[in-house]
């Protein structure tokens, strides 16, 4: 039975990726003999998918400089609905393959991109932007480490002006970082193979994250006969818009494209623009805020609770707090320094009750998570700035008096 929620999520994703939504799409049965689908076939959309001809804009840094960013676009060939398969777990030690069938048959949305990217960094940036869009829409939680979003990367090399070379497919990549490494490794491997006079096999490969290389999985030379046929249990999927929606139809039983379009949330690109406009921050900082899970909300909470200007707040979050988080491989949601504590610290700094150097010491103490407030740490460590001139003169005189006999 077709899941209505899957159809709505696919339409929403298609609209967000500037696709044309097909009002009539078809389901097909694809037969194959892997052990990870007990039925021996997969329901998919091979002939007429639900959405086609879209585009995804993404940005990446030049030479790792956040201040120099370029925007690129990758074409979206299609979005199709299909069944997920099971998961094969290969135990090389025992020469066994275990099969996890928990997700077999569950609805899956596949986004197919055109070959418009030329390196691992571009592929990673495009997938990260797609991930943010899916999370914004609620189409998927898209946590790659939990298998909610997986990437198959098709890689080929060729000289400019020549036809595309033979491609290999690197399957089931489960992190943006591994995607960049897998693509770059595969590009270099293919170049070196061709320069040695060898040939590239049309094969499926896997990325070994421990070794940092791709390894062969299975050969695609003898192209499999999937014996596609129209799926007999599912009729064509018919969608409507405001113009084509018949008056006598129950609205609960149909999917209205226009109704979904009107309810699309702000996409990441729009959110970035609003952050820049509202807080006067740099465009490149808006990318970091959105790319780090939970960081936008954390930043906005700090801004609400502190008298410091947003430009200075973002500097503290990006330069100081994020370095701690990355050292310990934590997200901002796991940080021992809450937005409330950071706001308190920045208020002490803004009121000139402590110096910038002292503030960094306080942040280091807060990171220990001992339950102390910034003010308690400042008092305990005697980190206050002394504003009283007479008190300063007494300290200086005491230092001079202590040096008289030397």
Structural description of this entry:
- The protein has 406 residues and is α+β, with helices and mostly antiparallel strands.
- It folds into 2 domains: 4-261, no CATH class; 268-389, no CATH class.
- Helix content is 38%, strand content 22%.
- The protein has helices spanning 4-16, 120-137, 176-195, 257-262, 268-279, 283-291, 295-305, 310-327, 339-350, 356-367, 374-381, 389-402; strands at 20-21, 24-25, 28-31, 41-44, 51-62, 65-83, 87-91, 96-100, 107-113, 151-155, 168-173, 203-208, 213-219, 229-230, 237-238.
SSE order, as H and E?
HEEEEEEEEEHEEHEEEEHHHHHHHHH
Q: Beta-strand percentage?
A: 15-25%
Biggest β-sheet strands, sense, barrel = 4 strands, antiparallel
Cα distance spanning the termini: 92 Å
Q: Percent range for helical residues? A: 25-40%
The helix count comes to: 12
Domain count: the total is: 2
Low-pLDDT sequence parts: none
How many distinct beta strands? 15
Q: Give average pLDDT, whole number.
A: 90
Based on Cα principal axes, name the global outline: elongated
Cα Rg: 28 Å
Structural class by helix and strand composition: alpha+beta
How are the strands of the biggest sheet laid out side by side? 1-5-6-9
GO molecular function, one term: transferase activity
Protein name: GATB amidotransferase
Domain Asn/Gln amidotransferase: 297-406
Keywords: ATP-binding, Ligase, Nucleotide-binding, Protein biosynthesis, Transferase
């Amino acid at each position: 039975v077709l899941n209505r929620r899957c159809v709505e999520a696919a339409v929403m994703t298609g609209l967000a990726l500037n696709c044309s939504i097909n009002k009539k799409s078809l389901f097909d049965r694809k037969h194959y003999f892997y052990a990870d689908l007990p039925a021996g076939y997969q329901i998919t959309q091979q002939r007429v998918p639900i959405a086609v001809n879209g585009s995804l804009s993404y940005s990446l840094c030049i030479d790792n400089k956040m201040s120099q960013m370029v925007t690129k676009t990758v074409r979206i060939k299609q979005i199709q609905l299909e069944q997920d398969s099971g998961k094969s777990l290969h135990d090389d030690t025992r020469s066994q393959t275990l099969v996890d069938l928990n997700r077999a048959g569950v609805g899956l949305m596949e986004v197919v991109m055109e070959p418009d990217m030329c390196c691992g960094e571009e592929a990673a940036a495009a997938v990260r932007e797609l991930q943010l869009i899916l999370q914004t829409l609620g189409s998927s939680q898209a946590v790659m480490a939990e298998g909610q979003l997986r990437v198959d990367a098709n890689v080929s090399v060729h000289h400019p002006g020549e036809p595309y070379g033979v491609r290999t497919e690197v399957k089931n990549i489960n992190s943006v970082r591994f995607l960049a490494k897998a693509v770059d490794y595969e590009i270099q491997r293919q170049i070196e193979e061709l320069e040695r006079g060898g040939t590239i096999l049309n094969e499926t490969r896997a990325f070994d994250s421990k070794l940092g290389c791709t390894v062969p999985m299975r050969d695609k030379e003898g192209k499999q006969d999937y014996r596609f046929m129209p799926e007999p249990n599912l009729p064509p999927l018919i969608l409507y818009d405001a113009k084509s929606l018949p008056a006598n139809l129950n609205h609960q039983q149909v999917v209205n494209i226009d109704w979904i379009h009107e309810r699309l949330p702000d996409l990441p690109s729009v959110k970035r623009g609003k952050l820049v406009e509202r807080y006067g921050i740099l465009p490149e900082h808006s990318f970091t805020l959105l790319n780090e899970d939970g960081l936008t909300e954390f930043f906005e909470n700090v801004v609400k609770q502190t008298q410091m200007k947003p430009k200075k707040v973002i500097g503290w979050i990006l330069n100081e707090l994020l370095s701690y988080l990355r050292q310990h491989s934590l997200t901002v949601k796991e940080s021992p320094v809450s937005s409330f504590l950071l706001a308190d610290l920045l208020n002490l700094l803004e009121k000139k009750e402590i110096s910038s150097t002292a503030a960094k010491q306080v942040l280091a103490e807060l990171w220990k998570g001992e339950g102390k407030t910034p003010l308690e740490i400042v008092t305990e460590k005697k980190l206050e700035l002394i504003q009283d001139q007479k008190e300063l003169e007494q300290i200086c005189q005491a230092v001079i008096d202590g040096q008289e006999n030397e």
